[in-house]
Amino acid sequence: MNDSANPEISPSPPVPPPASASPSKQGGLYANRKKIYVRAVNGIFAKWRWALVWLTQIVFYSLPWLMWNDRQAVLLHLTERKFYIFGWVFWPQDVRFLAVLLIISAYSLFFFTAIAGRLWCGYACPQTVYTEIFLWIERKIEGDHNKQARLDKAPLDGRKFALKFAKYMAWGAVALWTGFTFVAYFSPLNELLAAVPRLAFGPWETFWILFYGAFTFLLAGVMREQVCKYMCPYARFQAVMFDPDTLVVTYDEARGEPRGVRRKGKDAASGSLGDCIDCGVCIQVCPTGIDIRKGLQYECIGCAACIDGCDEIMDKMGMPRGLVRYTTENAIKRGWKKAEIIHHVLRARTLVYGAVLLVIGSAFLWGLATRMPLRVDVIRDRATLGREVADGMIENVYLLRILNMTEAPRTFVLGVAGLDGARLAGEHRVDLDAAQIREITLPVHVPRNVGKPGAYEIFFEISPEDDPALKLREKTTFLFPR
What we know:
By secondary structure, the protein is α+β, with helices and mostly antiparallel strands.
């Protein structure tokens, strides 16, 4: 539901302003919280926000149900220590990819924050996404922000109990399904579904479904703006990433002041009042309850709800939009037009961030594309030193741990090189199932007259039988005894 202001005269807020707009009673060292009743709003930024809600949740809830090669398409299987992501199988040895992915995420945050402030917070952060979902449920059950305020003030009766019970049950259902889906990324979905009728989840599955579900309920339904204002560290260090050319949600004080209530068209041309009619809509639609007219504040998550709300009022008052808009500090001071703003947004800082991000991202994709589908670890048996065996040969024993990192069974051919006459005394071919790891003990024989006592480099060569050109060489040492 869209609660819009009277087009003829700006209304006074029907409910008391949120806690951030009025003094709070002090209880010891802490301010008592006053609940914020967020007014619904329509507009281009609200549509973008809901588009991101739909996109992120369709991806989150649907991925565990997708199948790939007769298995779950995305499964971070902690028990097997394998991460299945569509056609890739990642092992603990691939932790470098995770490290690079975290670096890309950090640089992406720096890059987009330097350009347009808290885009992540305002549109894609799970706290924002689930708060939007829970607010929508609350409006559907309890009504708009005015009805919610009146319901909370009313004495407890059957109707109030029924509405509150329905709301909490709906929140709980969403939260538990979210917890279940979260666990389905780490434990096979078919096993979880089989356990549902009897509630026979394992201990850790039970814990994480309830834990993640409870925190979703608490943070998105109960605490809401307190998470962004008091718990999220990003609110505290965002200023480090901002500069006067960063696009942020801004109130145009030169245009809006002095404020004043008036009818549509009255005093608009006389210059006695600014364009702000002091309706309070920008405060009422703010999920953290701040007044954007006081300037940039750390509580602002950059959701642009105040822009949509103010634009609605400007339309109804017959005045141009943009009293509250995305712009930069320098643009406001110097009266820059859109082209000048864009020119300064694409400044050295953002270009460097973008270049670094492009290089790291390209390296990440190149690493994935050229990733070897085979991994071999070679360990020389230290309990069995080099020894002389029949036919005047010197034997060293090695443990080979071979990982088939593809999702198809493969046969690998083994060989040894580096010393004249070196040969394998054990298996020359190894069969591995899809995404299997196998350990084999492999003796290597070298003629006695090839070397003097000491250590020499040798190489194990492993290649798939169906693709001999794909060869892996692993270096180790061969000991000649005295």
